[in-house]
Amino acid sequence: MTAERDLLHLALDDAERRVPGATAIRDAAGDWTYRQLARFSREFAAWLVRLGIGRGDRILVQLPAGRRMAGMLFGVSRAGGVFVPVNPATKAFHLRSIAADADPALVVTSAEAVRMWHGIVDVPVVELDELTCELQGEQVAGPTVHVSSSADPAVLIYTSGSTGTPKAVVCPHRQVMFACRTLVAVLGYHAEDVVFCRFPLSWDYGLYKVLMTCLAGCTIVLADGESDLRLLGRMRETGTTVVPIVPSFAGMILRLARRERGILPPIRMFTNTGAALAPAVADELSLRFPGARVIRQYGQTEAKRITVMPPEEHGERPGSVGRPLPGTHVSILDPHGGEVPVGEIGEIVVSGPNVMDGYWRNSEATRKVFRRDEADGSIRLHTGDYGFVDEDGYLYFHGRHDEVFKRKGIRMSTVEIEHAATDIPGVEAAAVLPPGDSHDLAIFVESTASVAKVLDGLRERLEPAKVPVICRVVAALPRTVHGKSARQALARLLERGDP
Predict the structure, then answer these.
(1) What is the CB-side half-sphere exposure of residue 81 using CA atoms within 13 A?
(2) What burial letters (b/e) apply to 253-264, b meaning 16+ CB within 10 Å?
(3) How far is 431 from 446, CA to CA, in rounded Å?
(4) Which residue, 34, 44, 353, is CA-closest to 180?
(5) Beta pairing class for 219-222 and 194-197
(6) What residue stretches are annotated with the AMP-dependent synthetase/ligase domain (predicted)?
(7) Is the CA virtual torsion 100, 303, 155, 240 positive or negative?
(8) pTM, two decimal places
(9) Residue 13: pLDDT above 70?
(10) Mean pLDDT confidence for 484-492
């Protein structure tokens, strides 16, 4: 039936039929062809079924990104389970909450973490190398697929919220596969591509790349955890053509490229999401890597990708994060739910086959964010982000609800101030804190320039009300596990008065 084509593991099966001997995945330890990746996934699925894992059971995996973790994603799909990836950097304090929320039937982790997990859950905890030994010779004959509907959850992805309360987005097969197929088509992935993925598979930005490369029949390089200094060399060795980036990773690539005297890797496309890329950074990427397009995108885990700037228009409409994916719709609403005129800022609201099913076992949060349209009954995702669309339907991201604020009667966002800062010579990265109860507008910068020069540069680029009162120059901005600015850590620096 048609729905069966939307199951995650069938993307791998299709790739195995088309290009069985092509390299599917590389990590620091080696590589697998599509035939090898499919074989591992079938062995893992058969092992899960033998353990009694059934439809809807959650399999929690806390491992560094690698071939075997990718194979488990497809194996869990074959067995009808739900894949729950968790970042290896997550500590026991948060793992207890995640485990209580996900209620897994099985945990797969590293040798170093096994003892910790035994103190958190009372279900089987399997160490990766022991699992690999068990899978050798596993019989894979007979049916192992127990998923009957593409509406079944495929993955639970825990978002990096700031409240400390676990919140997992329920990602069904149908929505995941729609997003992946559409992105492959819009971005133009092809069989010769080599996608260099620096991100953990616990983040949808990394996880979806495994699925997208299967659909294209190309290669993914899982490089999370590899040496920063070796990144360009690794990209060159693997023939990397596509690099997903966030601003901090883009800055790292540029710092390496400025010192590079050899041949740079044959990158044809950088794709940006997670946080807005400053125009100055995008321009330098295009300059350092001639012919490479820097593709701006906007999305949330709750709908994967929402807009993409068409690759052929990568240098056009500065500031725009592109058009909605085909078959999806973006509305800009005022606080009362009415659509605002073109060019006016409001909340970004999304509808379409990319919108996920809500939050796992959290009906209250689901009702607030995933709201039913009274007119047609469809579900609309209220992103909590703000922006506007132009007359041609291109979206311009202005900031999250806690990044858009008024100061001295003027509406502004942290994003525009940060972009102005990174346009100043010598400023590598910037993070802005909106005014709070204990401090005025503040900015932190990674810079070789002095505080005075940074503030002078901001005065040249911004209206007076948008120039921060507080400016701190730091050696490195604190980052989240996804490479975003850790604003809570910056706020604590201000509270302590640290330089």
Answers:
(1) 32
(2) bbebbeeeeeeb
(3) 9
(4) 353
(5) parallel
(6) 14-360
(7) negative
(8) 0.86
(9) yes
(10) 77
Contact by Cβ (8 Å): 208, 354: no
CA distance 478 to 419: 18
Burial category of 285 from C-beta neighbours within 10 Å (exposed 0-12, middle 13-18, buried 19 and up): buried
- Give the number of other CB atoms < 10 A from CB of residue 399: 22
Kindly state the tokens that stand for 438. Answer: 């204990």
pLDDT tens, residue by residue, 215-249: 999 999 999 888 888 899 999 999 999 999 988 89
Paired with 380 in beta bridges are 351, 371
Q: How many CB atoms lie within 10 A of CB 438?
A: 8
pLDDT digits (tens, 9 = 90+) for 318-343: 889 999 999 999 999 999 999 999 99
Q: Which domains does the chain have, with CATH numbers?
A: 2-226 (3.40.50.12780), 410-496 (3.30.300.30)
The residue among 449 and 248 whose pLDDT is bigger is 449
Q: pLDDT category, 483, cuts 50, 70, 90?
A: low
**3-state DSSP of the chain:** CHHHHHCHHHHHHHHHHHCCCCEEEEECCEEEEHHHHHHHHHHHHHHHHHHCCCCCCEEEEECCCCHHHHHHHHHHHHHCCEEEECCCCCCHHHHHHHHHHHCCCEEEECHHHHHHHHCCCCCCEEEHHHHHHHHCCCCCCCCCCCCCCCCCEEEEEECCCCCCCCCEEEEEHHHHHHHHHHHHHHHCCCCCCEEEECCCCCCHHHHHHHHHHHHHCCEEEECCCCCHHHHHHHHHHHCCCEEEECHHHHHHHHHHHHHCCCCCCCCCEEEECCCCCCHHHHHHHHHHCCCCEEEEEEEECCCEEEEECCHHHCCCCCCEEEEECCCCEEEEECCCCCECCCCCCEEEEEECCCCCCCECCCHHHHHHHEEECCCCCCEEEEEEEEEEECCCCCEEEEEECCCEEEECCEEEEHHHHHHHHHCCCCEEEEEEECCCCCCCCEEEEEECCCHHHHHHHHHHHCCHHHCCCEEEEECCCCECCCCCECHHHHHHHHHHCCC
The b-or-e profile of 451-462 (16+ CB within 10 A means b, else e) is: eebbbebbeebb
Token pair, residue 42, equals 């079938």
Backbone angles phi, psi at 77, to 5 degrees: -60, -45
| Crossing angle (nearest 10°) for helices 231-238 and 247-259 | 90
- pLDDT of residue 471 exceeding 50, the answer is yes
